[in-house]
Each structure stands twice: as C-alpha cells, then as structure tokens.
Design goal:
Elements: H1 7-33, H2 39-58, H3 65-79
Helix pairs in contact: 1-2, 2-3
C-alpha cells in the first residue's frame, strides 16, 4: 500500500500522469518549433511532470530527487517575475 492505495493502482496513476506529461511535452515542443509558446500547455507540462516526480517518491524502487530539482529550476526560471525597470530622468 502506498498512501492508502494499492501499489498497482498507485503505479497506474503514476503512469497515467506520466503519459499526460509526455503528450503535453510534445505539444509544447511543437509550439517552440513553430515559435509560438503555448503557455497553458507549458503549465500543463510542468504540472504533470512535477506530479510525476512527486508520485515517483511513493514508489520504493526509484529515487527521483535530481529530476525534481531540475524541473523546479526550469519552472522557477520560466515563471519568475521580470525585474521592475524604472525610468531614469532624462539628462
């Protein structure tokens, strides 16, 4: 049992989330190749990939900390706020 769910059900949930992440990743890649970032698909990709990493911790067979850290770095870089630019007085 993993978090009150049978191992088979938990693994199936993990795999389904992973497949959704892979599918949304292909859509994101297509958008990047066409020069059109698809923000909602990027959010879906990052969310499902993050959920894949998180649910992977419940599986006792693997430890995915490095993948989770890399995903976190890219998510922060993608969605961080741009620095506020102030206008200087004209000289």
């Amino acid at each position: 049992m993993v978090f009150g769910v049978s191992l088979g059900t938990y693994t199936l949930l993990h795999v389904v989330i992973s497949l959704i992440g892979i599918g949304s990743g292909f859509v994101v890649m297509y958008g990047f190749l066409k020069g059109k970032p698809l923000n909602s698909w990027i959010a879906a990709f990052l969310t499902t990939t993050g959920l894949t990493s998180i649910t992977g911790f419940g599986l006792l067979f693997t430890w995915q900390c490095s993948a989770f850290i890399v995903l976190g770095v890219f998510a922060v870089k993608r969605y961080r706020l741009a620095p506020v630019r102030t206008m200087s007085p004209a000289a």
